[in-house]
Amino acid sequence: MANIIKIIEGFSFIPRSELNLLEALESQKVNVDYQCREGFCGSCQVQLLEGEVEYTSEPIAFIPEGRILPCCCHAKSDLTIEIPGGCHLKKTEQ
Ligand code: FES
């Protein structure tokens, strides 16, 4: 069954199952910092408030308690996350 991703102070969406969490957020034009996209740098960290994720590859970066690395995990259940600095959407070209 499809999981729902809820961003606190943002919105909710249902990600395509083949996308990792970072790709799913990007598909919704949500701004998330990232560098390596492979679990090395830790720059993509978001707070996991509710739910469970599954890592597709074991992250190398240190992950503080309660945080996850969206670049290398998938939603295993409905998730509620908080993006550092708030939920901001990328501006689209007109
Ligand atoms: S972008 Fe480097 S750990 Fe996610």
UniProtKB/TrEMBL annotation:
Organism annotation: Endozoicomonas gorgoniicola
Gene3D superfamilies in alphabetical order: 3.10.20.30
Pfam families tied to this protein: Fer2
Domain 2Fe-2S ferredoxin-type residue range list: 3-87
Name by which UniProt lists this protein: Class I ribonucleotide reductase maintenance protein YfaE
